[in-house]
């Protein structure tokens, strides 16, 4: 395999460790430098091999393998922090660095990485950007495409390119680095990225309330939360909550409220929450509260078929539109309008259509095939085809077809 891709045999990996839904690729390779990454993609283009960029494998291992799954391209060999400027609140790192390692680096300076991804101990920066991953604090932090300032990336024919820069005001050229966020490895491999950071808030509080479905549906309980604009406001169905020893105590569903900011403001909003929801079952403060946010992100990547939706509804009451069984298997980050439903035995096509009528737009389906209710307009498909042709002229990235058709990313 290494001879086929032009690299030393030491870069070859066991393909069995890169299986998608039980199907391994023909080859797996782990470059250690940008130059090796570039050479690998050139060789794959020359030999007509379909490539899947592979970070921590947190989500990919549960996805269906694409038809052309020839090479798993492991990016974890590129894990350096290239430049960190605490005074400028910017960080440049290679794509294989884990989210957890970057968080620990920034915490020492009282700063935080504004990216939340499931299983942060293994999830890589490149994988989180490619998925445009965000957790319960998306409304407060923005999505990764809102925080990326620039990137180096390698195209499907093995060309190393750059987009953006290291400052917010850099607007030269096209924002390809933002386009790559959410493309799920269908257009290019992100080799290195520069991000805008933010200071850690002076005070944090996490409140966990037990909540029954009947109480969830009462909109009057949630009116004041729209004005508070909490960092976190998440409903967790009882079947999902039961998988977490902290969230699932008591057997009911849970509502998690996260407050961040100046201490006086946080305490005022916590008192308002008590008036609306009663005394919380759990209250965590500061560093203890911060440990809860990754757990909420982890709940999004539980095994099984999953439908993900976006919605303009910003209170937990909107989740009451779900059938009872689906509600118990759901995670709704209401503060940012993101709903994840673990479908179980549900009729997923019907569920997606029923939720569409309630204002929930399907954005991703894992381990289940659902055609878009409204296929992309021809103009959009033509634009996607042109973008893909420019970045991957030989169609080497195995997820490219799905991205172009609008059924992925």
Describe the structure.
The chain has 409 residues and is of the alpha+beta class. It folds into 2 domains: 200 residues, 2-Layer Sandwich (Uridine Diphospho-n-acetylenolpyruvylglucosamine Reductase, domain 3); 164 residues, FAD-linked oxidases, C-terminal domain (Vanillyl-alcohol Oxidase, Chain A, domain 3). 30% of the residues lie in helices and 22% in strands. It has 17 helices and 18 strands. The strands form 4 sheets. The protein has an 8-stranded antiparallel sheet, sandwiched between helices. The protein has a 5-stranded antiparallel sheet with strand order 4-5-9-7-8. A 3-stranded parallel sheet has the order 1-3-2, with helices on one face. The radius of gyration is 21 Å and the shape is globular. The model has no long low-confidence stretch (mean pLDDT 89).
Main traits of this protein?
2 domains, 409 residues, 18 strands, globular, 30% helix, Uridine Diphospho-n-acetylenolpyruvylglucosamine Reductase, domain 3, five-stranded antiparallel sheet, alpha+beta, single chain, Vanillyl-alcohol Oxidase, Chain A, domain 3
Topology (SSEs and partners):
Elements: H1 2-5, E1 27-29, H2 34-47, E2 51-54, E3 71-74, E4 81-85, E5 90-94, H3 99-107, E6 111-112, H4 125-130, H5 138-141, H6 144-147, E7 148-154, E8 160-164, H7 176-180, E9 189-196, E10 198-199, E11 203-211, H8 213-216, H9 223-228, E12 232-236, H10 238-241, E13 253-261, H11 263-277, E14 282-285, H12 286-290, H13 292-298, E15 306-310, H14 324-328, E16 330-333, E17 338-342, H15 348-357, E18 361-366, H16 378-391, H17 400-405
Parallel strand pairs: 1-3, 2-3
Antiparallel strand pairs: 4-5, 5-9, 6-10, 7-8, 7-9, 11-13, 11-14, 12-13, 12-16, 15-17, 15-18, 16-17
């Amino acid at each position: 395999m290494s001879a086929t891709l032009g690299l030393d045999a030491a870069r070859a990996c066991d393909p069995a460790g890169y299986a998608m839904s039980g199907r391994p690729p023909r080859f797996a390779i782990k470059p250690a430098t940008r130059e090796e990454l570039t050479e690998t993609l050139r060789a794959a283009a020359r030999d007509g091999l379909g490539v899947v960029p592979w970070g921590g494998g947190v989500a990919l291992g549960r996805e269906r393998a694409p038809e052309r799954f020839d090479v798993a391209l492991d990016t974890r060999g590129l894990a350096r922090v290239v430049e960190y400027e605490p005074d400028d609140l910017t960080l440049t790192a290679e794509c294989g660095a884990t989210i957890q390692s970057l968080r620990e680096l920034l915490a020492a300076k009282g700063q935080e990485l504004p990216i939340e991804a499931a299983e942060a101990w293994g999830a890589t920066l490149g994988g989180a950007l490619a998925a445009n991953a965000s957790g319960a604090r998306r409304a407060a932090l923005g999505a990764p495409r809102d925080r990326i300032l620039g990137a180096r990336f390698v195209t499907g024919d093995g060309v190393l390119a750059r987009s953006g820069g290291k400052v917010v005001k850099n607007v030269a050229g096209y924002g390809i680095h933002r386009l790559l966020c959410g493309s799920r490895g269908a257009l290019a491999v992100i080799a290195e990225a520069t991000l805008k950071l933010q200071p850690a808030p002076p005070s944090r509080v996490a409140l966990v309330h037990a909540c029954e479905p009947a109480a969830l549906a009462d909109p009057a309980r949630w009116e004041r939360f729209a004005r508070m604009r909490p960092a976190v406001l998440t409903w967790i169905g009882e079947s999902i909550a039961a998988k977490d020893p902290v969230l699932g105590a008591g057997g009911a569903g849970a509502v998690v409220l996260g407050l961040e900011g100046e201490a006086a403001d946080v305490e005022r909003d916590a008192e308002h929450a008590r008036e609306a929801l009663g005394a919380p079952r759990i209250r965590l403060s500061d560093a203890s509260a911060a440990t809860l946010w990754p757990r909420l992100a982890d709940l999004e990547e539980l095994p099984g078929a999953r439908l993900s939706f976006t919605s303009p509804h910003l209170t937990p009451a909107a989740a009451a539109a779900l059938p009872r069984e689906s509600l118990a298997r759901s995670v709704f980050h209401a503060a940012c309008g993101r709903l994840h439903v673990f479908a179980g035995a549900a009729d997923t096509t019907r569920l997606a259509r029923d939720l569409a009528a309630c204002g929930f737009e399907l954005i991703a389906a894992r381990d289940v095939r659902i055609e878009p209710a409204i296929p992309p307009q021809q103009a959009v498909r033509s634009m996607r085809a042109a973008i893909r042709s420019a970045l991957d002229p030989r169609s080497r990235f195995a997820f490219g077809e799905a991205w172009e058709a609008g059924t992925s990313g």
